[in-house]
Amino acid sequence: MSYYITTPIFYVNAAPHLGHAYTEIAADVLARHHRARGEETFLLTGVDEHGEPVTLAAKAAGVEPQELVDRNAERFRALTGLLEISNDFFIRTTDLEHKRLVQEFLQRVHDNGHVYKGFYEGWYCPRCADFKTESEIGPGNTCPIHLIVLTREREETWFFRLSAFQERLERLYAERPDFVLPEHAFNETRNFVAQGLVDVSLSRASLAWGVTVPWEPTHVFYVWFDALLNYVTALGYARPGVSLDHLWPANLQVLGKDISKFHTIYWPALLMAGGMEPPRQLFVHGFLLGPDEAKMSKSRGNVLDPFAIIDRHGADALRHYLFREVSFGHDGPVSEEGFQARYDAELANEYGNLASRTLNMLGRYCEGAVPAVATDAALREEFAGLFARVDELLARAELSAALEEIWRHVRRLNRYVEEKAPWALAKDPDRAGELAAVLASLAEGLRVVTVALLPYMPAKTTELLDALGSGERTTREFAAEGWGGAVSAIAPLFPKGSSEAA
Hints:
Number of helices: 18
CATH class of the largest domain: Alpha Beta
């Protein structure tokens, strides 16, 4: 079984921010989860390097577009490493192979009769690189995302016959009610299509920075069609000499709601026009909101720097916080204060302290080994459904709900420690058997929650699993059973009062 998951590719007109990190981490959690289930998994991310936003940013910086994209692409690539993203390929839309495959695909769309030449006139946002419909225009003729006044533009273009796919898209949504998640995003997609689709611009005659239209070399492809095709083109050259065609259609494509229209409407229609299947599922997440309760964006200046956050607190702590603080699929505020509260209460006090206490008591009372005895039957029953429940939730990309389910079990183990008071049992030699069962149960419970948490916090959970003596890979695979052996003490996983909690 294979699992192909993508992030959107990110504009390189400026440096990455926390919103980019949020999307990448979400896709990575799901990719790691599916790998732990033993599935062939491919995670794609990368950068979008063409279009007017890049051209304008390069001009403002006094450099050529290629210089700007080379500089910023490396910053995005560096971010994936800092975030512990396990991507299998990092695509750049200036890759020669990507450009060649875009031309091949869109030539096929042309040859299939889905394009025609004309003039386009409409209200345009240069930061979105998008012509807005009347229903998408904000007060004062502004872009509702960037809050800038839209410009009226008219130019020669090749149109994509989006309107011809109205019925096919409506049928797709009817037959696959989970094609777009969560439900409110699906409803917005259907409502937009129900208003009636109009043909859209496929090419730009006024720009030179882009992929050249093979049948009209004075035009370049509209950046969105170039960018969307990365999900398919990457499979053509990510592994030289190895075919990855079997990975399409993608199992899940993760994206922010500001680019929903392009992915949930334009993208499946474009694939149909080129004779390919749409992806199996799209998940549209909400915005991380800054202190001003507005979407974080470079243009508004309310971004939080993920590089600085990781430097101070570590990637695992950031990964945990984002999906605990904001319900995935919805908007939600994030802040340094909120992070610190979660860090202290949950990572340091609940999970980190549980790990330290368990390992220390195994060292003190059991000579540094997990007792080879039966675990507590009642506790075992409480934990029996954890993996299945997490699996069910992550199958719907409900990352926050799955993390809450895991955290409920972390808190249960902390209560178990207080209920059983192993330190008191250790004072009575006649209760040595009971002590062994309690500590074996704690160790196994800690292993279970740690395996479940591994996709969210890969570095710290690996460190803890090593300390627990689970050196065999089978003990780390999702839902695996059977382990034991020596344990070792470790430094606190999430020390309180530290400026570097990595």
